[in-house]
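Run log, item B.
One chain of 118 residues. Sequence copied directly from the ordering sheet:
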Amino acid sequence: MSSGSRTLTAMYAAVALWLSFCTVRTWGTVPLWTTFAMAVASLAPVIGVVRETVIADERRAVAVLREQEGRRAAWRDEAAAALAQAEVEAACCERWWTSCATEHDPACAHRTSRGTTA
């Protein structure tokens, strides 16, 4: 729960307690319908507390999903890098063929020695 949510929750709780206190204090001294109206009004901030709690749970769930997606994205990035590396290594031999055997990389696994004649 963020600090703003905690502040709102504390404010909601304070308002609910104040309205409950006022409901108890006015019981029997004012018309009955006003006491019931204040009792219902004292329950309204409870909805706000529940709402803030649900929002905090949703934020936590989204953070977990983002972390999992980040792991999947990292795996996909590694796979893409390996594929790109394989393509670059294959391009070495292609460069060798297109340059009439003059520009073959020395580290290429497919390189044949120049002394071998076929």
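Observations after the first pass:
- The CA atoms of residues 1 and 53 lie 8 Å apart.
- The mean pLDDT is 77.
Flagged for discussion on Thursday.
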